Amino acid sequence: MSLSENQKEKINALIQREKDVQTNKADDTTTVTLTDEQLYNILKQSLTSDQLDSIQAAKHHAGVSKVVFHGKKKSGNFDLYLSKGMLNFIRGVAIGAGVSAIVALAGRLTGATALAGYVLKKIITQFIKKGSSGFSYGRKFKIRSWKYKGWSYQ
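The structure corresponding to this sequence follows.
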């Protein structure tokens, strides 16, 4: 399924509005969170009923997707947690739309948006291809200095 530019923009704007940002100065981390329930409500506002029915993310909304930055965002040290629902949403739409949703979740990455998009697209494309029958579990992707360092189950 592909999304129109208007749908992508609406999803990204709603993610920007709904996400929760927490900063912990003690351990120098910033955590940006979006629950699957929030994702479902965003999709409900942005997609047609046929599009919504075709995405598995719409069927379950108990997980959480988040980005945990370690230090300054521009250094590219972060953990990307994608819930089962978010992975299945990305799987159901064009990869580019999924990546733009994740970049919207992460927020502006001070001068590194293009690089972040490239890294995320590379990682997500590899995993989406492998998860062609859908995802049963969320994933945590570890990025250090803008380089992919591995993944684990959430």
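The chain has one domain: 5-145.
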